[in-house]
Amino acid sequence: xxxxxxxxxxxxxxxxxxxxxxxxxxxxxxxxxxxxxxxxxxxxxxxxxxxxxxxxxxxxxxxxxxxxxxxxxxxxxxxxxxxxxxxxxxxxxxxxxxxxxxxxxxxxxxxxxxxxxxxxxxxxxxxxxxxxxxxxxxxxxxxxxxxxxxxxxxxxxxxxxxxxxxxxxxxxxxxxxxxxxxxxxxxxxxxxxxxxxxxxxxxxxxxxxxxxxxxxxxxxxxxxxxxxxxxxxxxxxxxxxxxxxxxxxxxxxxxxxxx
Amino acid sequence: xxxxxxxxxxxxxxxxxxxxxxxxxxxxxxxxxxxxxxxxxxxxxxxxxxxxxxxxxxxxxxxxxxxxxxxxxxxxxxxxxxxxxxxxxxxxxxxxxxxxxxxxxxxxxxxxxxxxxxxxxxxxxxxxxxxxxxxxxxxxxxxxxxxxxxxxxxxxxxxxxxxxxxxxxxxxxxxxxxxxxxxxxxxxxxxxxxxxxxxxxxxxxxxxxxxxxxxxxxxxxxxxxxxxxxxxxxxxxxxxxxxxxxxxxxxxxxxxxxx
Lengths: 259, 259
Ligand SMILES: Nc1ncnc2c1ncn2[C@@H]1O[C@H](COP(=O)(O)OP(=O)(O)OP(=O)(O)O)[C@@H](O)[C@H]1O
Ligand SMILES: Nc1ncnc2c1ncn2[C@@H]1O[C@H](COP(=O)(O)OP(=O)(O)OP(=O)(O)O)[C@@H](O)[C@H]1O
Ligand SMILES: [Mg+2]
Ligand SMILES: [Mg+2]
Known about the structure:
Helices cover 42% and strands 16% of the residues of chain A. By secondary structure, the first copy, chain A, is α/β, with parallel strands linked by helices.
């Protein structure tokens, strides 16, 4: 029975989508069945697999707004990653975004109900959220078993962690008592920057053992994904970024088997 | 009479706040009177000047929700930048964010009316928007004379530019016929990354002379701002980041005097 993990951060550009794509790919390469759900109206997740926002297909929007069965909006990700599936957001206009968010504002459990039907088919379901804490992120936290917060290794991102914790506690109190912390992931750690060591120390001091041991380094190879339209392990397994996500997947599987 | 410029991008982490802070500081150091308005519920702008979200003061929230006069929520930015003022968002909880956005959803011209009163007091008013296109960003586009789009020099950011253009055209058609393009700014250009030259070329090909000649390089010195609580020109005028924002300010002043 799969676990649903929401990837959230109010701060933009911290590696939410990159973590969904690369962690998902690594876990699926290690024989786990993984589903990635694009919650973000930006459609960034879809772009990483060539399921462009100009496509003719349907996606999460049609499931949420029109009640289309979620099995109809699941797409394969990549020929070499048969265990990795994608649900693209498919939100293309401001009007569609209004309808998409409006449906979740009206019924906060809607996403949870939609995903219940496929939960048994996957080991991990990652929800790639937009950089905000209100809907669609709130609905993702209601549907999730736990949440993962990427923290860019910089002061601006560190300062917003408290807000995610508060928002998650509120969802736990009002809507979803099982919501737990999957973990905090330090991303884009840049060896060149003088503040990196200090920021890592402060994050570990503040969040203790809820921070993954694996740190994702800043690696320009990862920024090529939207252009190559595949995860980094498919085109450069030896890059620092790929090796870090492989290590993170191993760390997660070791922790899960120990539970 | 000042011009109101909304700084927008649906993509997160592309340098919206950094551009507001540093461009604003440079223009004010060049004797222009500048106001920065924190539209983003994250309160990132306030943090860059030590007006923390834990503060006891009032901000844009109180003007928008409670009708407090905007002159009451204007704060000085920095002892050495007397011509640079700040309006912090002051949105601290999800409830407040709901009230803040709800007020603008109900009356799309609200922000425009609030800012009209101070427009004559400044040469430039920059609105630092969150990474989304619906409110509060829509209200910012309604209030603005023009908009500035930072484009992080990476594929993921480039792909979302079309959406900003479409959203701005819609606001122009329905609410604000004077809304023009202030310019597109390439940010975080990393000399180490192989794709930088290609991405710059594609951006210039697609957006032509609406792209500023000045490019902001990736410079870790800029990421220290939330910790130092002052713009980069106040602590490292010779850094690549500071020199680039000084050059951008000069480019803008030259263009404005030519108009
Ligand atoms: N470890 C890394 N090293 C270098 N670049 C990275 C890394 N991780 C992600 N990137 C790049 O940084 C940018 C931001 O990453 P990404 O889009 O995954 O963040 P996000 O949190 O999903 O952003 P948003 O808030 O817009 O949803 C992208 O251009 C991505 O390619
Ligand atoms: N040119 C640059 N070089 C290196 N780091 C930068 C640069 N500009 C901004 N940064 C850093 O990158 C991160 C993102 O920048 P910033 O917060 O200004 O982006 P934003 O678009 O306002 O993000 P959000 O979408 O969350 O509002 C911050 O940690 C900032 O300090
Ligand atoms: Mg994303
Ligand atoms: Mg910002």
